């Protein structure tokens, strides 16, 4: 018969901002602008019911490039952001404002919203 091989024991997955023993560790890094922008553009596109191909064609870019932008893989120029915003019937100001709001939300997630009493 075959030998039984023991798998290594799993280490606990650390919570962002905490080490495995519960102590504070380095804070989680802020998300990249391109990642938040891409998620926002994808959300706007889906909310309007537009396909990736339709939006890319209206913006004058390839569907592959738009997909990479939406996944946060590519850093689009201001001209490309303007073209995609126009294809989504939005202004650059609207897209930028929504992206900044998303960044603010992500920054404050997991943090207390008001004063905190720390007891020993």
Unreliable residue stretches: none
Overall geometry: flat
Structural class: mainly alpha
Please give the number of β-strands.
0
Termini Cα gap? 58 Å
State the helicity in percent bands.
Answer: 40-55%
Query: Can you write the helix and strand succession as a string?
Result: HHHHH
Q: Counting H and I runs of at least 4 residues, what is the number of helices? A: 5
Return the average pLDDT rounded to an integer. Answer: 84
Strand content: under 5%
Q: Report on the biggest sheet.
A: none
Rg, Cα atoms, Å: 21 Å
Mind explaining what this structure looks like?
This protein is an all-alpha fold. It contains five helices and no strands. Helix 1 (33-48) packs across helix 5, helix 2 (52-59) packs across helix 3 and helix 2 (52-59) packs across helix 4.
In short:
The chain is mostly helical. The chain has helices spanning 33-48, 52-59, 63-70, 78-87, 92-108.
Task: Sum up the structure in keywords.
120 residues, mainly alpha
Outline the fold blueprint.
Blueprint (H helix, E strand, L loop, with lengths): L32 H16 L3 H8 L3 H8 L7 H10 L4 H17 L12
């Amino acid at each position: 018969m075959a030998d039984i091989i023991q798998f290594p024991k799993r280490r606990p997955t650390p919570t962002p901002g905490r080490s495995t023993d519960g102590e504070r560790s380095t804070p989680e890094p802020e998300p990249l602008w391109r990642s938040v922008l891409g998620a926002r553009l994808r959300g706007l596109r889906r909310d309007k019911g537009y396909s990736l191909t339709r939006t890319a064609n209206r913006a004058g870019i390839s569907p592959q490039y738009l997909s990479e932008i939406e996944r946060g893989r590519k850093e689009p120029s201001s001209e490309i952001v303007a073209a995609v915003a126009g294809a989504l019937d939005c202004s650059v100001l609207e897209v930028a404002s929504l992206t900044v709001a998303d960044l603010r939300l992500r920054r404050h997630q997991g943090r207390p919203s008001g004063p905190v009493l720390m007891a020993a």
